[in-house]
Design goal:
Mean pLDDT: 87
GO cellular component, one term: cell outer membrane
CATH superfamily of the largest domain: TonB-dependent receptor, beta-barrel domain
Protein name: Iron uptake receptor
Number of helices: 5
Helix content: under 10%
CATH architecture of the largest domain: Beta Barrel
Number of domains: 2
Family: Belongs to the TonB-dependent receptor family.
Shape: globular
Largest sheet: 22 strands, antiparallel, barrel
GO molecular function: siderophore uptake transmembrane transporter activity; signaling receptor activity
Radius of gyration: 27 Å
Structural class: mainly beta
Strand content: over 45%
CATH topology of the largest domain: Maltoporin, Chain A
Keywords: Cell outer membrane, Ion transport, Iron, Iron transport, Membrane, Receptor, Signal, TonB box, Transmembrane, Transmembrane beta strand, Transport
CATH class of the largest domain: Mainly Beta
């Protein structure tokens, strides 16, 4: 068996790599309803259901429904209320009704934009249309750009542009500004201030983002498209946060919108898309561990009419690692093009290509010497127990897709999102399988895993509004399709001799690898879903139902071939009451369904995972939009959970029965003053295995792996606006994660820790207008360089948590 990459016959070794040029091409065809000619925005009739309430919220809902971009100074709307608007109206009349009684006026400045003006003694802006300072833009898409840390709209949870306060479930949004302020280098780092989200295997892995929410693993979508996942393989795409506009963490089951999902939640990653406002940005970054990185981001209109928009984002990184022989290299490029033939129609094609090469800081070491005492002493955090001449992790990934949207004169609209995602991985490692009696010498094995996965998704939906008596309905009907092809080949063999963990000598010749198994799985899923968002006065009910049909075929060299054909009906219902003072209590119920890409210990198909959640909570959005608070309590259950085969020579999984997680999550994001922002969160989780099957009785009553009972964080960001220090910004945060268990039998307890983060920034434009657009940001995570064990699987596999990381980013935007 020639054990080389599935698609690429060569592999680079050591620290020298051939950076292959990628040629991405796709032929895309689709059909939809005939396109109706669109009138100018002032004449386009849209059905609105904007309730009375804070003016900022009303304008946000108007922008989402009409697609009109609004420019205004945030100070002129602060504290004002709108009477709302309901019914089918043209955009000019609808905007006028929303502004009625506020003393503000509007002026359409283009085919798809309007300016709101008014008198503001605080800013010196008059109603005559003088230059507007500190403007904000409301895009006609709830999942798009967001200023600051607070997101008010969301499209990921309901697939419609919906105010977050009206979504009857907890949704945590990490904005572009938060990603930059906290210096996040991975999605895992970007979400570590999110309540209830933890790194499933610790936080030091530079290969993959594997996380849990509410006690269970989460899956990832990119722009609503399911990223690859598989039974054995590590064929995961890792998306660089620099290419993202925002990250939406959907808590609890999300099957109604996205089909197969796990009950803990879903993380949707939203790529940067073309903007109508020109954007030009270049940046360089340096840091400890020889970290060097360059970035660029360009966007804006191509033609004078703004019918064609583009975006091009790129990144290159070369860095060392905390562990000896560690390194981290990346090349990333993401182009996107938008075509708007009419004001009612848009078509965006986008994609990305990325290469990664790394030896990760995620290095297994024995519990003796890390978590527990060892007579030979404590092991240093930089100790590498592998074989650098053999080891390495190489990934090549790409995606390409399009987003199409057309609004009809009737007020209905059609959307179609299509995307193809692909990843190939070659992973070589030298793990150890035995520690001798002196607790000093290791016996090691050389391994290689070749993983490859593709997903193709297409989602077509129709949305519209109508009334039945006093009830306003916003209906979504959709059909989606998922195709997943996942494969994995694994080979291994024993090294000769032993490895001295306390006086390491490297250079052992890797043995010839023996193929152990070859696995491939193909899955097809078709889902039909419907959702109705009903509004009556201040009551909002969201109800959805979905039917999934899934067939999968798996081939395993050890167990043969088996096919799975399953169907499922999942649903969700939630009720929100929106008080005029900004509070919105809610209750909801939702279910999930997820087939398992694996087999039992006897080679039979496993039962699908099934989950259900009851959730109740309250959200608060201040009238000025500068504070958003969510408090949620939940009861979550999952049936047919799996457990590893206790026989180390066997294959397949056991199904351990059922698990339950109860908890409480709190999150607050607020601008305490125009210069001071706060993010605070807390999560309490109580997990337990409630039912076991024969062979797993030892797990009954045990806690789930890596589910801390308590988790909390706080982040403060202060900017000096005036005086000799104007332009200086200070930020800092504390992250607490309580103790948890690192194995299913609860034999290895991983202690809790408190970590300190810090940030320092300076806007050179405050020093001299000639330097406008130039800023410097310094970020430090685990500032005190606390040494801790972040994860243990068993007595031979414990992992140190991430050490201190410091980066300095110099960025110029014009």
């Amino acid at each position: 068996m020639d054990f080389v990459s599935r698609k690429h016959g060569t592999r680079s070794n050591g620290r020298t790599y051939e950076w292959r040029a990628g040629l991405l091409a796709a032929s895309i065809a689709f059909s939809t309803l005939p396109l109706a000619p669109a009138a100018a925005p002032a004449q386009t009739v849209v059905r609105y259901a904007v309730p009375a309430g804070p003016l900022d919220t009303a304008l946000s809902r108007f922008g989402a429904a009409s697609g009109v971009q609004l420019l205004y100074n945030s100070s002129i709307t602060r504290g004002l209320r709108s009477p709302g608007v309901s019914g089918s109206l043209d955009t000019r009349e609808a905007l006028g009704r929303i502004l009625a009684g506020t003393g503000l006026s509007h002026r359409f400045t283009g085919p798809n934009s309007a300016t709101i003006t008014g008198t503001s003694t605080a800013t010196g802006i008059d109603a005559g249309g003088s230059t507007l300072l500190d403007t904000i833009r409301i895009e006609g898409a709830g999942g798009g750009q967001t200023e600051g840390y607070i997101a008010s709209q969301d499209i990921a949870a309901t697939k419609t542009d919906t105010p977050l306060i009206e979504v009857p479930k907890a949704v945590n949004v990490v904005t572009r500004d938060q990603i930059e302020a906290q210096g996040s280098q991975t999605v895992m780092e970007a979400t570590r201030y999110t309540p209830g989200v933890v790194g499933a295997f610790g936080d030091s892995d530079s290969r993959n983002d594997v996380q849990q929410a509410r006690g269970f693993f989460v899956r990832y979508n990119l722009n609503g498209s399911r990223l690859p996942y598989g039974a054995y393989s590590s064929a995961f795409l890792r998306i660089d946060p620099y290419g993202l506009e925002r990250i939406d963490v959907l808590k609890g089951p999300s099957s109604v919108m996205y089909g197969q999902s796990l009950p803990g939640g879903l993380i949707n990653l939203a790529s940067k898309m073309p903007t109508e406002t020109p954007l030009r940005e270049v940046a360089v970054q340096g840091g400890n561990h020889d970290h060097m990185q360059g970035m660029f981001d360009f966007s804006g209109p191509i033609d004078p009419e703004g019918r064609f928009l583009y975006r091009l984002t790129g990144l290159a990184r070369d860095a060392g690692g905390r562990v000896d022989f560690g390194y981290d290299q990346r090349a990333f490029i993401a182009p996107a093009l938008t075509w708007k033939p009419t004001d009612a129609t848009s078509f965006t094609i986008f994609g990305h290509y990325q290469q990664d090469h790394t030896i990760s800081d995620y290095m297994p070491l024995p519990a003796a010497g890390t978590l527990r005492p060892n007579p030979n002493g404590e092991l240093p955090a930089n100790r590498y127990a592998g074989e650098p001449g053999h080891d390495g992790f190489d990934r090549e990934q790409y995606s390409i897709g399009y987003k199409f949207q057309h609004a009809f004169d009737s007020g209905w609209s059609v959307r179609q999102n299509l995307q193809f995602n692909s990843v190939d991985i070659d992973q070589r490692a030298s793990p150890f399988f035995m520690l001798d009696g002196t607790q000093r010498y290791l016996s090691r094995v050389a391994t290689q895993g070749l993983a490859g996965a593709d997903t193709f998704t297409v989602d077509t939906s129709l949305t519209g509004s109508f009334s039945t008596g006093p009830v306003e309905h916003s209906v979504l009907v959709g059909l989606d399709y998922l195709y997943l092809d996942d494969s994995y080949r694994f080979a291994s063999n024993l090294y000769g001799g032993s490895f001295d963990l306390y006086d390491p000598v490297y250079g052992a010749v890797p043995p010839a690898l023996i193929p152990r198994f070859d696995y491939n799985m193909k899955r097809r899923q078709t889902g039909l879903y419907v959702q109705d968002q009903m509004r009556w006065d201040n009551w909002i009910m969201t109800a959805g139902l979905r039917h999934d049909s899934v067939d999968a075929s798996s081939v395993h060299s050890a167990t043969g071939t088996f096919d799975v054909d399953q169907t499922a009906l999942t649903g969700q219902v939630g009720l929100v009451y929106r008080f005029d003072n900004g509070f919105a209590p809610y209750v909801s119920y939702s279910t999930s369904f997820d087939p398992i890409d694996n087999f039992s210990t006897t080679g039979e198909a496993l039962k699908p995972l099934e989950g259900e959640q009851f959730e109740a909570g309250i959200k608060y959005e201040s009238p000025d939009g500068r504070m958003f608070i969510t408090a949620s309590a939940f009861h979550l259950e999952q049936k047919n959970i799996t457990a590893p085969n206790p026989d180390p020579t066997g294959s397949g999984l056991l199904q351990a029965g059922e698990a339950r997680v109860r908890g409480l999550e709190l999150e607050a994001k607020t601008e305490l003053t125009p210069a001071l922002s706060l993010i605070a969160s807390y999560a309490y989780s109580d997990s337990v295995i409630t039912k076991v099957n024969p062979g797993t009785e030892h797990l009954l009553g045990k806690e789930l792996v890596m589910v801390p009972e308590h988790q909390a964080s706080v982040w403060l960001d202060y900017r000096i606006e005036n005086g000799p220090l104007a332009g200086l910004g200070l930020g800092g945060g504390l992250r607490y994660q309580g103790k948890s268990f690192g194995d299913a039998a609860n034999e290895f307890e991983v202690g809790g820790q408190v970590l300190v983060d810090a940030a320092l920034s300076y806007d050179f434009g405050k020093l001299d207008p000639d330097f406008d657009g130039l800023d410097l940001r310094v970020n430090a995570t685990n500032l005190l360089n606390k040494k801790y064990v972040g994860w243990c699987q068993n007595a031979l596999q414990c992992y140190y948590g991430q050490g201190r990381k410091v980066t300095a980013t110099l960025k110029y935007r014009w």
